[in-house]
């Protein structure tokens, strides 16, 4: 069952071609049980991104290799989390009412604040990855751990949270995750980050978790709860906080 949950989560969170039979028997309303596999989904996606960086750095240089790593992760996820980040920033920085913010977040058009957020996060990741590589950081491990961290700490915006909308994909997780599932998800992130980067990985994960907790409090005050878009934003920011802490 756990393997089917893993492949169901991978199918949901990425564009990798997962055969349907590998996740057969898992209905969409049961996807919440797969939250414990999120760190492992992150491990797979981050490792693939790290391999892209490793294959490009020797003949394109560090900045373009970093660009390749960031771009590959965006392609692997179909830009799902980046879209959530852009929509969230378009909404919360619009200085409108809560109801209007949620309407703006549903709009498929990209606004100024969302565009600026995408530019900032993508450029920040490229610069930080390049700097980490210059410092001799094992980049496959670092990129894998960052992806693990982002998909582990997102559970903090699900557990005991209120869904800000009446319906939507975020309702599969927000407010539905149990304390047991939250604990095992975070424990999985801690174990994987420790195996990949040792104590520095655990410290960076803790810092990332703290950043997401603070972000979640701000979002809850502004929007009245969380949405699928804020979950995507949390994954992107969780990765960024993790990489920043490694510096």
Fraction of residues in helix: over 70%
**Could you give the count of β-strands?**
0
Order of helices and strands: HHHHHHHHHH
Q: By helix and strand content, what is the structural category?
A: mainly alpha
What are the low-pLDDT stretches, counting only 5+ consecutive residues below 50?
none
Radius of gyration: 17 Å
Global mean pLDDT: 93
Largest beta-sheet details: none
What characteristic shape results from the CA principal axes?
A: globular
Q: Count up the helices.
A: 10
Strand content: under 5%
What is the terminal-to-terminal distance?
A: 39 Å
Short account of what is shown:
This protein has helices at 2-13, 38-60, 62-76, 80-92, 98-106, 112-134, 139-153, 179-197, 199-223, 228-246.
Polypeptide structure, described:
The chain is mostly helical. The chain has ten helices and no strands. The protein has helices at residues 2-13, 38-60, 62-76, 80-92, 98-106, 112-134, 139-153, 179-197, 199-223, 228-246. The radius of gyration is 17 Å and the shape is globular.
Notable traits:
247 residues; mainly alpha; 0% strand
Task: Give the secondary structure arrangement, pairings included.
Blueprint: H1 2-13, H2 38-60, H3 62-76, H4 80-92, H5 98-106, H6 112-134, H7 139-153, H8 179-197, H9 199-223, H10 228-246
Helix pairs in contact: 2-3, 2-7, 2-8, 3-6, 4-5, 4-6, 4-10, 6-10, 7-8, 7-9, 7-10, 8-9, 9-10
């Amino acid at each position: 069952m756990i393997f089917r949950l893993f492949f169901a989560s991978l199918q949901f969170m990425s564009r990798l071609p997962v055969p349907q039979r590998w996740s057969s028997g898992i209905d969409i309303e049961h996807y919440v049980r797969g939250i414990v596999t999120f760190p492992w989904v992150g491990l797979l996606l981050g490792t693939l991104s790290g391999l892209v960086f490793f294959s490009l750095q020797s003949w394109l240089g560090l900045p373009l290799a970093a660009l390749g790593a960031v771009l590959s992760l965006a392609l692997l996820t179909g830009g799902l989390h980046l879209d959530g980040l852009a929509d969230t920033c378009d909404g919360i920085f619009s200085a409108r009412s809560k109801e209007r913010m949620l309407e703006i977040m549903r709009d498929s058009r990209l606004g100024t604040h969302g565009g600026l957020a995408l530019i900032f996060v993508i450029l920040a990741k490229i610069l930080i990855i390049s700097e980490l590589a210059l410092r001799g950081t094992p980049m496959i491990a670092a990129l894998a751990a960052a992806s693990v961290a982002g998909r582990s700490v997102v559970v903090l915006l699900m557990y005991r949270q209120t869904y800000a909308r009446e319906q939507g994909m975020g309702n599969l997780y927000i407010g539905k995750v149990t304390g047991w599932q939250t604990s095992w998800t975070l424990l999985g992130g801690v174990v994987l980050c420790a195996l990949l980067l040792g104590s520095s990985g655990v410290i960076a994960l803790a810092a990332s978790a703290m950043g997401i907790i603070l972000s979640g409090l701000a979002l809850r005050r502004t929007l009245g709860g969380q949405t699928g878009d804020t979950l995507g934003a949390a994954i992107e920011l969780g990765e960024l906080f993790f990489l920043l802490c490694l510096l």
